[in-house]
Structure formats: structure tokens, C-alpha cells
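W.,

You were right to be curious about this one. When I first looked at the sequence I had no strong expectations either way, so I just let the prediction run and decided to look at it fresh. Below is the sequence, 504 residues in total, followed by the output.
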Amino acid sequence: MKRNRYIIAYVLLAFCFIKHPVVGQNRSFTGTVTIHPVRLEQVGDSLYIEMDMVLEDVKMNTSRGADWIPQLVSASCTLNLPRISLKGRDEYKAYERYLTLMTNREKASYDFPYIVKKIVGRKNAMISYQYHLPYETWMADACLNIRRDECGCGETAWMEIEPLMEKVTLEYPLIPYVITPHLAYIRPVVEQVKQRDVQAECFLDFEVNKVDIRPEYMNNPQELAKLRAMIDELKADADIQVKSLDIIGYASPEGSLANNKRLSEGRALALRDYLAGLYDFPRSQYNILFGGENWAGLVKTLQHTNIDYRKELLNMITNNSYDQTLKLKLREFRGGIPYQYLLRSVYPKLRVAICKVNYEVKNFKVDEAREVFKKRPQNLSLNEMFLVANSYPENSLEFLEVFETAARMYPEDEVAGINAAVASLSRNDLVSAERYLKRVNLKRNQPVYDNAMGVWMLLKGDDESAEKYFKNAADSGLDAAKKNLLELAEKKSDVIKMEQRRDK
């Protein structure tokens, strides 16, 4: 018989109900955590472990956490299994930051928990633990213990549990159906012309009422060097073609608007002449623009300056029209003392010239794009990055790195965010996936978003919520969501069959 080809051992969990009540030295949480054993079973080449953790009125210390670590223990070997981790609000934020700062290589070798659950306030919940691993002969005599680790307090509580039953040979091996999530990515729209721009702010120093640039005057050497470095980098890139340079001059809001416009435009022209003497761009590529009086810069500076009467100044500026009347109020406020500070320390920084370079980047074939990605990923479009990712084996480090880089290079783009979320789900990184999913506008990319949310819920153990998301995506025609619904239906059917067999 087929069952004679296997050693079929069923060891009920090495404990019945394990409670962790609050005691004097326990400083991580209050309330009760109860472990309900469900299954410890070897079927064929796999060992299946299942248990339910029930939280009753549990409240975590906000800056602490606790881990429950299942262990397979035999006379010859001890194996730690993925842990269940409960964390308070601040500890959970620290964990998220830790994952965010990890490199791809570090993530590949990191021992991810089975689940990390944030506990805010008092919590009643159940966590279903379902795990399987390759069966090895030493596991035949293993029991299952669980260790609680009080994170950060230097205390480790061990619960040594006597096995309730040693072995059970089943006539009908019960193998739980393990769902394989189906993921969907979005192919970004092809950019026929890749238009980009980059800009540098120059806080140039001019003599009073003068418009000519003195390169060695005050802070001008550093400011001009910053501008040259930006343009030199573009000029050195053979894949870039500069199309135009916008020089936008801003004036500080004192004096008349007409004089400020004259000074701002004159100084912008002086900056154009300075650049024209260094670079071979045609004069027709320069656009001179007057940005106006820099009231927005004044408000921003005051918001981050500990000047006396700061709140009164901000109220005055934000509640009045930007005109000569407001300028007069500022000059007369508190006898003019705050205004003198503004003239000396704030207004000079508002006389800024912005040089924005508009350029186009050539389009790349996949082999070219792979090389460009290593050196200048900003030269790639989202579609080119998508093609680069798919030139590597799915879920390889290179595959995942491209999607994460795309999300970083295009932080406001929803397609980049959703693809990075799906890539995170493919490696069971629920924390990163949640962060990317929060960036997505629900009114757009709805089917792929719903499918990703469904997979995220599925991996968290919330089948009911997962099914709702899958149905929404499937109704929109997404094949991956339809397959996920079939997987859920298969799992439900399998649960019924298992219950019927156990009843026999």
C-alpha cells in the first residue's frame, strides 16, 4: 500500500493548553496568551505544524515586544521554527525602520518571523500558525516545545512541555491544502520621449542694486560650483540631450515690485551670460523668467526660525495680500526691530536664482538598460525598469531590487508602488508590502491593487478579507484574482474533508 512507503507519524502538540499569565517579572505585556495545539504530523516528505494562539485582553508595553518561538526537540536535535512576534506601537515602528534600512542581501538571509502583530490598546484576537518543512528522520521522536522571549528585558522564559501523545499512525494522512498565491504586476506605459529635468538653487551674492555676478564675491564660489557640477554631470552623459535651460530669478520682498523685477531679471540674465561663457549651449536654449517676490520662501524660513514674534509675523504675512501695505506693516511692526533682523539674516537668502535644465534621455534596449541600471538608474523609464526586472529569474535578488529601485526613483508613481508591493509579497515581506500599498490611490489600478491586498490578507491569515478583495479584482477580469479564488475554494473544500476524516 502507498502508506507503507512512508513513515507516517502523528504527534499531537507537545502541550495541551499553555497559558502565559501576567507575573511580577513579566514587563512586556498584560493579559493572557493561550496556545491551542492543532497538529504535529509527518506525511510523506513533509512535517506539518499547526497551532492557534488566542489573545485575551492582551496589552503590550508600547516600547516592548515578546516572541513565541516553537521548537522541535528530540534527543539528538533541536530546531527553532519561525516565531510569532507581538510588538507594542513604538517597538513595531522600530521593526519597520529596521526592515526599511536592510539591503536586499540582508533581507535574503534574515530570519523573518511567521507573523509580526502590532498590539495597540487591549487586544482580543486569534493567530493561526500553519507551517510545514521537509521531514527528516530525527523528527520521528521529536516533541514540540515553545519558548517565550521577552524582547529587550534580558529575560527568557522557557516552557518545558511533556508530550501528551508520542505517536499516532493515521490510516488516512491528513495533508492541509497549502494555497499558492497568484500575483499580478502592472506593465508601465512606454514613454516615447523620456523628458526629464533637474534643477539647482543658487543663492548668489550681489552688491546692493547691482546685477553683475562677481564669481569670487562672498559665497558665490560655492554656489556657482554647485551649479556647474549639475550641468557638467549632464554634459558628460552621452545618453542625455539638453533641450533648454530655465533661469528663474526670485526677489526678496522689500522695495517696489518694479525694482525687484528689474533686479531679478537682470541678475538672471547675468547668470545666463556666466553660463554662456562656460558652455556651448545656444542662446536660444536659455529662458529667463521672473519668479516674483519670494513670499513663500519668507514663510518657510520663518516656520523654521526661532525669531522673536515669529507667530505674529507669520499671521501677518499669511492673512494679508502680498503688496506694499504688507511691506509697510512689516517695517513698522514692533518698532521695526524684527524687520531689521529680516533684512540682515533672512531676505538675502530669498534672492535666489534657480537654474532648471530640461533634457531628454535616449531609449534603451533591455541589454543596454541592464547596464544603465547599475550606474544611472534615473535614466531609465518605469517601462524599461520593468523589462530589466523581467530579464532576471522571478523573485531573484536582482528581480526584486529593480522594483524597489523603481519605487524609490519614482516615489509618486502608483505603478511603481504597486509593483514594489507585489515584489515584497512574493517573498512574504508583509511590512514592506503594506508600506507600498498605502501609497496607492484606490481609484486607479483597482484590480491589481485588490489582488495585492487579497494576497497580503491571505499571508496574514485573514482568508475572509482576502476573498472579498479577490472577488472585486476577479469581477474586473483579473486572471490572477480568479485563480486565487479557486485556491481559496480548494482550501475550504479540503478543510471540510479533513474534518470529516477526523470525525471518523
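Here's what jumped out at me. The CA atoms of residues 369 and 441 lie 29 Å apart. And, maybe more interesting for your project: Confidence is low (pLDDT under 50) at residues 1-18, 20-25, 160-172.

Coffee later to discuss?

I.
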